[in-house]
Amino acid sequence: MEPPYLFDHYDPSRGAGVDVGLDVDSSVLTLAVHGTWGNRLCHDTHTAVRKCLSEHPATLLIDLQALADPRAASVPTWMTARRLGVPMRPPVEVMVCVPEDSPLAGRLHRLGAQRYLPMYHTMSRARAAAAEQMPLTSRLEMQLAPEDGAAAAARAVVTNACAAWRLSELQDRARLVTSELVLNAVEHAATPITMVLSRRGDGLHLAVGDGSPRLPQLLDGFPALPDGAPPRRGSGLHVVHAAATLWGAMPTREGKVVWATVRPWTRR
């Protein structure tokens, strides 16, 4: 898989599929699986889980209430999701919501999965448990108005955070990414903006939420840059694609969030 990792709203008319949404305030990402478990839905879910984990949420809550799985064949998928989340730094808490009387819940209990995969029978209980998780220790949130000075204010926060968190080598790239995400929200959404900045191990995670449900598009036509040359500000999402390690977008209750992770350079 290559970024951007984009999730659109689930369309029930298309049959089986996944629906992904992020709560920016709590950093809880919900993945709901719809339809009858089979090869196609298995593939789509595996892909969605990996995309979700790339966003590095505090919690990945997997909602299986709308999943029909009479043979409980999906069990390895949820085990794998948990296994992938544990070694991340910081770890991603993976939990599932599964109806109590379903074959899937029965098999998970027989396997003893509840010892290491938190299981809840209602989404209200699952969300309450997610809210009790330890918050990220290095996290800043700010509200921005959709106006000309928004990007400059966001860049200043990034500069201060990189200094405080000793991530100075990421500062220039993080400022570029922040500028483009905020400017895009100002120009294309024109709604109040929420920016969340978090330290994720040796990297920096940026999330910019706005009130528009329209997901961004990476258009063709960005000119090639010499090796090592920094991307130019004002080139839209191509700057984000060039400067960020990973990036993507997904729906929220209010609209959408576009996120990016900036880590020390490695070859993608």
UniProtKB/TrEMBL annotation:
Gene3D superfamilies per record: Histidine kinase-like ATPase, C-terminal domain (3.30.565.10)
Keywords from the UniProt entry: Kinase, Serine/threonine-protein kinase, Transferase
Keyword Disulfide bond: no
Residues covered by the Histidine kinase/HSP90-like ATPase domain: 149-260
InterPro entries in alphabetical order: Anti-sigma-factor_SerPK, HATPase_C_sf, HATPase_dom
Annotated SUPFAM superfamilies: ATPase domain of HSP90 chaperone/DNA topoisomerase II/histidine kinase (SSF55874)
Superkingdom of origin organism: Bacteria
Matches recorded under PANTHER family: ANTI-SIGMA-F FACTOR RSBW, ANTI-SIGMA-F FACTOR RSBW-RELATED
Protein name as it appears in the record: Histidine kinase/HSP90-like ATPase domain-containing protein
Origin species: Actinoplanes ianthinogenes
